[in-house]
C-alpha cells in the first residue's frame, strides 16, 4: 500500500479485513507466500444509481506490474460483483495515475466525469 501513498499500519489493515461483511471483499494475488497485489471492493445501493460495486483500493506491486496480475484481480472483482447482482463496477483514480487510467480503459471502463473530492475530518 505504501507504494501508492497509503500509509496504513498492519494492525489497522487486519481490523479492516475482519470487518468486511457480505458487501465488502478483498482479493489478494500471491506467489510463494509473497503478496503481489490486491483489490478491495464494496457494494453500494444508492438511491440514484442503484446497486453498484466500487473498487475501493487496487494495488499491484511495482515488481509485478505488467504480468497480468491486475487483470486477474479485476476479473475476479467483477465476477464477485456480478454474482451479487450489481449493475456496474466503478472506480475512482487519481488524475496523476495515467498508467492506471489506461489499464481501466483497456478493460472496458470509460471516464464519466472529472470532479473535486472534498473531505472533512470528524
Structural class: alpha+beta
Individual helix count = 3
In CATH, the topology is named Aminopeptidase
The biggest beta sheet is recorded as: 4 strands, mixed
Query: Strand tally, please?
Result: 4
Helicity, in percent?
A: 25-40%
Per CATH, the architecture is: 3-Layer(aba) Sandwich
The ordered string of helix (H) and strand (E) elements is HEEEHEH
CATH C-level name: Alpha Beta
What's the pLDDT, averaged over the residues? 91
CATH superfamily: Gcn5-related N-acetyltransferase (GNAT)
Counting structural domains, the number is 1
Give the strand line-up of the largest sheet. 1-2-3-4
Write a compact overview of the structure shown.
The protein has 122 residues and is an alpha+beta fold. It has helices spanning 10-18, 69-83, 98-106, and strands at 24-31, 34-46, 50-60, 88-91. It contains three helices and four strands; from the N terminus they run αβββαβα.
Describe this structure in words.
- The chain is 27% helix and 30% strand.
- The two termini are 24 Å apart.
- The protein is α+β, with helices and mostly antiparallel strands and 122 residues long.
- The protein has a single domain (2-106), classed as Gcn5-related N-acetyltransferase (GNAT) (Aminopeptidase, 3-Layer(aba) Sandwich).
- The protein is globular, with a radius of gyration of 15 Å.
- It has helices spanning 10-18, 69-83, 98-106, and strands at residues 24-31, 34-46, 50-60, 88-91.
- It is built from three helices and four strands.
- It has a four-stranded mixed sheet, covered by helices on one side.
Amino acid at each position: 500500500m505504501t507504494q501508492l501513498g497509503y500509509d496504513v499500519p498492519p494492525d489497522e489493515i487486519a481490523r479492516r479485513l475482519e470487518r468486511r461483511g457480505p458487501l465488502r471483499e478483498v482479493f489478494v494475488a500471491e506467489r510463494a507466500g509473497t503478496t503481489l497485489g490486491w483489490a478491495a471492493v464494496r457494494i453500494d445501493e444508492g438511491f440514484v444509481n442503484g446497486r453498484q460495486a466500487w473498487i475501493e483500493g487496487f494495488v499491484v506491486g511495482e515488481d509485478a506490474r505488467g504480468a497480468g496480475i491486475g487483470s486477474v484481480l479485476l476479473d475476479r472483482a467483477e465476477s464477485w460483483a456480478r454474482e451479487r447482482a450489481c449493475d456496474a463496477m466503478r472506480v475512482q483514480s487519481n488524475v496523476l495515475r495515467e498508467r492506471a487510467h489506461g489499464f481501466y480503459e483497456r478493460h472496458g471502463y470509460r471516464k464519466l466525469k472529472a470532479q473535486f473530492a472534498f473531505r472533512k475530518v470528524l
